[in-house]
Amino acid sequence: MKAVMKIGPKGQVVIPRDFRNALKIYPGSRVLFRLTGNKLEMEKPPSDAVAIFKETAKGMGKLRFDSHEAYVEELEERVN
């Protein structure tokens, strides 16, 4: 399914009825936007909090945290 829509003066786009019905989204529903290169995707977000966090964190890469190093840095900042 594809549709070409016009963006209004406030940056709003009307989601066609067939799309809304297919995703079962209604006024007040939340939607998830993802920008990948020059492609904007919109989908109905997962309903549970863990799935939402995983989807939001996707693409952020792995985070590295050294608690000892952070402790030493914090201690040095407080002393100086």
TrEMBL record:
Under InterPro entries, the record lists: SpoVT-AbrB_dom, SpoVT-AbrB_sf
User: Recorded GO terms, molecular function?
Assistant: DNA binding
Domain SpoVT-AbrB: start-end pairs: 2-47
Pfam families with a match to the protein in the record: MazE_antitoxin
The protein's name is: SpoVT-AbrB domain-containing protein
Which species?
A: Candidatus Methanogaster sp. ANME-2c ERB4
